[in-house]
Amino acid sequence: MTDPCLTPNGGLPRLLAIMARLRDPDAGCPWDIVQDFSTIAPFTIEEAYEVADAIEREAWDELEGELGDLLLQVVYHAQMGAEAGRFDFHSVAERVAQKMIDRHPHIWGDGDRDKSADQQIADWEAAKAKERKGRTLDGVALGLPALLRALKLQNRAARVGFDWPDTEQVLDKIQEEAAELVEARDQLTQAQVEEEMGDLLFVMANLSRHLGVDPEAALRGANTKFVRRFEAIEDALSKTGRTPADSDLTEMDALWTAAKQAETAET
């Protein structure tokens, strides 16, 4: 009998069989056997970010592999769920399939399809709120990156009217929080400094939301720019046989400005 794990072009059934074999207590991989939901979760998050990274870089030749790695994480969790008698891959797939049907009555029901994308988003959020049947902020995952979670919490609160009407009030709040941070730095404990820094970052996320800016994307862009310009500093110093450790802040700041001006000239 042909081993399904070794069947070429076996698709999803092949992948499911491979995962079951890896987790087999008698014939599986020792590392895979001892894993659980909590130990695999960090890999799941990492793989999702690698998918986002490939898309950000438009590395389409890498995206197929990254999506496969992310799919493997779903298969891994589903296998552990099946072993515990909680759920399996097929029940996971059926659940999300039914959710898509229920949330798209304008496609598989008598809902009106003649609506804007914004209205469809509003309807989607209303459907999710009805499913939650709890507090407004319930269900915003604790495991999300803090910046993304702040944005989702604010979006939830805004849908029930807890929001500033315009950016001016958000900007005023940023000034207030910045002043409180300075006061904490000069007079309070490190724990209070951390708290005030968190308040300032939270309001900055809110400003991003009001400006229609994805703060995660904006920060990723800033990170990329920082790397590019710092590498320009290193390149400039290397021409004289030096590294940043051989330089000082004044020189490196001047080289940073030169790199910035060069980028501006190119655009």
UniProtKB/TrEMBL annotation:
Pfam families: MazG (PF03819)
UniProt keyword terms in alphabetical order: Coiled coil
Alphabetical list of CDD domains matching this protein: NTP-PPase_MazG_Cterm, NTP-PPase_MazG_Nterm
UniProt domain NTP pyrophosphohydrolase MazG-like: residue ranges: 35-108, 168-229
Coiled coil: 167-194
Entry annotated with the keyword Iron-sulfur: no
Name of the protein in its database record: Nucleoside triphosphate pyrophosphohydrolase
Lineage: Bacteria, Pseudomonadati, Pseudomonadota, Alphaproteobacteria, Rhodobacterales
